[in-house]
C-alpha cells in the first residue's frame, strides 16, 4: 500500500535519484511524509523503507533521532520558543510562560482548535535578535508578548503573520511539515550524472593525478 | 551613543547584520535587498572567482587557498588548504559536504550567509570541487532554517540553468552536481562525522576516531571534505583577489575577516564582519563602530567568547585580540564566532544551567560519560537553583566534569586569586567534544563565582533515604 500521493511519490523518486546511495534520501523523505500528513505515520515509514532500500525499523531508528520529526499529530502551527542563553538573557523565560498560559496547553500537546502546539527550542541561530520564536520554522525576531499575541490572532483568522516576522521572509505561512516552499529541480540535460561510489574508479577528467 | 546612532548600521532585510566601518569581504552584498538573486550576484562580480579558477589548474587553485591560510570557520579553526590535502592518493570518488548545520549556542552567521548570499556559497563550493576533483557536493542545511533552504534551492536552480553547475561548467571539462540536503534538528550533526552519518540516512552519531578526518574515510567510506558555510563563502573573494591581497587583512596567524555574532547584554547586538586578529573584545563590546557598550552602562560580568562550548572570559580578558591562537592560549576558543555578553545583573548559576541543559538535551547518547554526565550536571545545577543543593554538590559537579574531561579543564586566568590560564582544548573521554563542552560553563562559573553557588546551598541536613533501612534489612 502506498502512502505518498502520486505527486509526492514522483518527488520522492526524484529525491532518491539525486544521491549516489538511496538511503541518503531517508531524512528528506521523512520531511516529505511530514509535509503530506503533518506527522510521520507507519505507512509512511514502510514506503520510505521501500524507496530507500532499508527496513521500516531503520527508518524509525533514524527518524526518532531527530526532534523535528513527530510520530504523533501536532497542531497545524508548531511554535518553538528558544530558551537558550542569548534568548534567556533577553526575557525568553517570561515569553515561554506567556505562550503556555495564553495557549492554555502543556508543552507538546495540541490546543482544542487543533491549531497550535508549542515547544521549547534549542538555539535557532537568531541570537542577536533575541528573544526569538518560530512558527513552522519561520522566524519572529526580538519577540514580545504582544508580538506573539498578534501572530496568534492572525493565524486564528487564517491570515499570514509573516509580515510581522523576519523582514526577509514574506508570503504565505505553510502548515506544519512544509519547510522550503520551493524544491530544488535538477534539469536532466544539465545533470553531471549521479553514480554509485563503486562505479567511479579514477579521478574526474579535469584532474591529472600525479603518481 | 544616543538612541538613533545605536540603530545606525542595521540592515533591515538582513536581520541583525550591522553594516559598520571596516573591510567587507563576505557580507558586501548584504546591503542589497535582492542580494540572493543571480541577477544581483552577477552584477556584483558574481561567479568571476569561478571563471578565474577555471583558467588555473586545479592544483594552482588549491595552492592559492593554502597560501591564503584560510582558517575553518566552523569552530575548530583548522586551515582549509591543509585539510584539502588529506585525501589519500589514488582513492576516488571524493565528495564535498558543506556544513550548514549551524546550531552552536550564540552562533548566527551561516544562516545569514545562506539566506542573503547563497550564490557566493555555491561559487565557493564549485571552486572547491574544481580544485579537488570532487564528484558531487552536498549542501547540508540545518533543518530548522526554512528560508535558507528556499534561497539555496532557488539559487541552485538558477546556477544549474545558467551553466555554472552540472555538466561541463561554462563549457569546460569540469562537471559537478550540487545537491541541497536538509537536516531535521540535532545539534550533534554539526560534528563532521555525525554530519556524514546523517547524510547517509542514519542517526547522527559521531564516528569513532581514528581516522580523525573524514578526508580519509568519509561519506560512503570515500574521502570527503567537510567545510563550513563561512569558510567556503570566502573562496570567491580569495580567488578573485589572490592570497596575498587576502593576507593584507587580519593578522599573520589569522588572516582575513570573520563574522561574529555578539548577543546578550550589549547596546547594539548584531552580526559584524570583523577584521581577524586586530580587533579586541573591548573594542567589540564598547566601540562605537561595534556594540556601543554594555546595556544600561552596567558592568560586564562575563562573556562567552566562542559559542556555548567555550570556557567563559571575564574583564581580565577584554584586551585579547580576536585571534584563535591568543584566545586558545588564554584558556578558551573563538569557536564559531559566537559571543554572548552578560552584565552584572546576570545570575551565574542560572546562566551555567542554561548552557549545560543544552548539552544534556543534545547529547546523542553514544558515549556514557556524556550521556549520563550531562544529565547529572543538569539535575544537580537545577537542584542547587531550587534551593535543594547539598554542600557536596559543587565538588560533585567538578568531579562529574573530570570524568568527561579529565585533568585541569581549560580556564581563563584569574590574577586576583593567582590562577593561571589553562589553555584550550580540553582532554576528553568521549568520541566528540560535546560532553567536554558541558564542563566549560561549570568550571568557569564555579571557579569565578563559587560564592554564588554557596549562597544558594543553605541546607545542611543529610540526603534522606527513601527506604527505611531496618525495613530493608528484614
Q: What's the CATH superfamily of the largest domain in chain B, by name?
A: NADH-ubiquinone oxidoreductase 51kDa subunit
Order of helices and strands of chain B: HHHHHEHHEHEHEHHHEEHEHEHHHHH
Let me know the number of strands of chain A.
4
State which percent range the strand residues of chain B make up: 5-15%
Q: What is the general shape of chain A?
A: globular
Q: Round the mean pLDDT of chain A to the nearest integer and report it.
A: 96
What name does CATH use for the topology of the largest domain in chain B? Rossmann fold
Strand ordering within the main sheet of chain A: 2-1-3-4
Characterize the structure shown.
- The complex is a heterodimer of chains A (211) and B (474).
- Chain A is α+β, with helices and mostly antiparallel strands.
- Among the domains of chain A are: 6-63, Arc Repressor Mutant, subunit A (Orthogonal Bundle), CATH 1.10.10; 77-164, Glutaredoxin.
- Chain A is 33% helix and 9% strand.
- Chain A is built from seven helices and four strands; from the N terminus they run H-H-H-H-E-H-H-E-E-E-H.
- Chain A has a four-stranded mixed beta sheet, with helices on one face.
- In chain A, a hairpin with a 2-residue loop joins strand 3 and strand 4.
- The radius of gyration of chain A is 21 Å and the shape is globular.
- Chain B has 474 residues and is of the alpha/beta class.
- Chain B folds into three domains: 26-244, Rossmann fold (3-Layer(aba) Sandwich); 257-343, Ubiquitin-like (UB roll), CATH 3.10.20; 348-456, de novo design (two linked rop proteins) (Up-down Bundle).
- Chain B is built from 19 helices and eight strands.
- Chain B has helices at residues 3-7, 38-43, 48-54, 58-67, 80-83, 110-116, 118-132, 146-161, 192-199, 229-233, 235-241, 243-246, 281-286, 324-329, 348-362, 368-385, 393-404, 434-456, 469-473, and strands spanning 95-100, 136-141, 177-182, 224-228, 257-264, 270-275, 300-304, 338-343.
- In chain B, the strands form two sheets. A four-stranded parallel beta sheet of chain B has the order 3-2-1-4, sandwiched between helices. Chain B has a four-stranded mixed beta sheet with strand order 6-5-8-7, with no helix packed on it.
- The longest helix of chain B has 23 residues, at 434-456.
- The mean pLDDT of chain B is 95.
Amino acid at each position: 500500500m502506498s502512502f505518498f500521493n502520486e505527486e509526492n511519490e514522483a518527488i520522492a523518486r526524484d529525491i532518491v535519484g539525486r544521491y549516489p546511495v538511496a538511503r541518503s534520501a531517508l531524512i528528506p523523505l521523512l520531511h516529505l511524509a511530514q509535509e503530506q500528513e503533518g506527522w510521520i505515520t507507519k505507512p509512511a515509514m514502510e514506503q520510505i523503507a521501500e524507496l530507500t532500500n532499508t527496513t521500516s525499523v531503520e527508518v524509525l531508528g533514524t527518524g526518532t533521532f531527530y526532534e523535528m520529526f513527530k510520530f504523533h499529530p501536532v497542531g497545524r502551527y508548531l511554535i518553538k520558543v528558544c530558551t537558550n542563553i542569548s534568548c534567556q538573557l533577553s526575557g525568553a523565560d517570561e515569553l515561554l510562560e506567556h505562550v503556555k498560559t495564553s495557549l492554555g496547553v502543556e508543552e507538546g500537546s495540541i490546543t482544542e482548535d487543533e491549531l497550535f502546539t508549542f515547544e521549547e527550542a534549542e538555539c535557532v541561530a537568531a541570537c542577536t535578535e533575541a528573544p526569538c520564536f518560530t512558527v513552522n520554522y519561520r522566524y519572529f525576531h526580538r519577540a514580545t508578548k504582544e508580538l506573539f499575541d498578534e501572530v496568534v490572532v492572525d493565524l486564528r483568522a487564517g491570515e499570514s503573520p509573516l509580515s510581522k516576522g523576519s523582514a526577509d521572509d514574506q508570503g504565505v505561512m505553510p502548515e506544519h511539515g512544509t519547510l522550503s516552499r520551493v524544491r530544488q529541480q535538477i534539469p536532466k540535460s544539465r545533470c553531471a550524472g549521479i553514480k554509485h561510489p563503486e562505479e567511479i574508479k579514477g579521478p574526474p577528467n579535469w584532474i591529472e593525478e600525479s603518481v | 551613543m544616543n538612541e538613533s546612532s545605536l540603530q545606525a548600521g542595521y540592515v533591515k532585510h538582513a536581520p541583525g547584520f550591522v553594516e559598520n566601518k571596516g573591510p567587507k569581504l563576505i557580507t558586501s552584498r548584504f546591503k542589497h535587498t535582492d542580494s540572493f538573486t543571480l541577477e544581483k550576484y552577477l552584477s556584483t562580480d558574481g561567479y568571476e572567482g569561478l571563471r578565474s579558477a577555471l583558467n588555473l589548474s586545479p592544483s594552482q587553485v588549491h595552492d592559492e587557498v593554502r597560501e591564503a591560510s584560510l582558517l575553518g570557520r566552523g569552530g575548530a579553526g583548522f586551515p582549509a588548504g591543509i585539510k584539502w590535502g588529506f585525501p589519500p592518493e589514488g582513492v576516488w570518488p571524493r565528495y564535498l559536504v558543506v556544513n550548514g548545520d549551524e546550531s552552536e549556542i550564540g552562533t548566527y552567521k551561516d544562516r545569514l550567509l545562506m539566506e542573503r548570499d547563497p550564490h557566493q556559497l555555491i561559487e565557493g563550493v564549485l571552486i572547491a570541487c574544481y580544485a579537488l576533483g570532487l564528484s558531487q557536493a552536498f549542501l547540508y542545511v540545518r533543518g530548522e532554517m526554512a528560508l535558507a533552504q528556499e534561497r539555496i534551492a532557488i539559487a541552485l536552480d538558477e546556477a544549474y540553468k545558467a551553466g555554472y553547475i552540472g555538466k561541463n561548467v561554462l563549457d569546460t571539462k569540469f562537471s559537478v552536481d550540487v545537491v541541497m540536503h536538509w537536516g531535521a534538528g540535532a545539534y550533534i550533526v554539526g560534528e563532521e562525522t555525525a554530519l556524514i552519518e546523517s547524510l547517509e540516512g542514519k542517526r547522527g552519531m559521531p564516528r569513532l576516531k581514528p581516522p580523525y578526518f573524514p578526508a580519509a574515510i568519509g561519506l560512503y567510506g570515500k574521502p570527503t571534505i567537510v567545510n563550513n558555510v563561512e569558510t567556503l563563502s570566502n573562496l570567491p573573494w580569495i580567488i578573485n583577489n589572490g592570497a596575498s591581497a587576502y593576507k593584507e587583512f587580519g593578522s599573520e596567524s589569522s588572516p582575513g575577516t570573520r563574522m561574529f555574532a555578539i548577543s546578550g547584554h550589549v547596546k547594539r547586538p548584531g552580526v559584524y564582519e570583523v577584521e581577524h586578529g586586530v580587533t579586541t573584545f573591548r573594542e567589540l563590546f564598547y566601540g562605537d563602530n561595534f556594540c556601543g557598550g554594555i546595556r544600561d552602562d552596567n558592568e560586564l560580568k562575563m562573556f562567552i567568547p566562542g559559542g556555548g562550548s567555550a570556557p567563559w572570559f571575564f574583564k581580565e580578558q577584554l584586551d585579547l585580540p580576536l585571534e584563535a591562537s591568543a584566545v586558545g592560549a588564554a584558556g578558551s576558543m573563538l569557536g564559531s564566532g559566537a559571543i554572548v555578553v552578560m552584565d552584572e545583573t546576570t545570575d551565574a548559576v542560572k546562566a551555567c544551567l542554561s548552557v549545560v541543559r543544552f548539552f544534556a538535551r543534545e547529547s546523542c547518547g553514544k558515549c556514557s560519560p556524556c550521556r549520563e554526565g550531562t544529565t547529572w550536571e543538569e539535575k544537580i545545577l537545577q537542584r542547587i537553583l531550587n534551593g535543594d543543593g547539598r554542600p557536596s554538590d559543587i565538588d560533585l559537579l567538578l568531579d562529574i566534569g573530570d570524568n568527561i574531561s579529565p585533568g585541569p579543564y581549560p580556564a581563563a586566568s584569574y590574577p586576583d586569586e593567582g590562577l593561571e590560564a589553562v589553555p584550550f582544548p580540553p582532554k576528553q573521554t568521549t568520541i566528540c567534544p560535546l560532553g567536554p563542552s558541558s564542563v566549560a560553563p561549570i568550571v568557569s562559573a564555579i571557579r569565578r563565582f563559587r560564592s554564588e553557588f554557596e549562597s544558594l546551598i543553605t541546607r545542611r541536613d543529610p540526603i534522606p533515604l527513601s527506604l527505611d533501612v531496618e525495613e530493608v534489612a528484614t
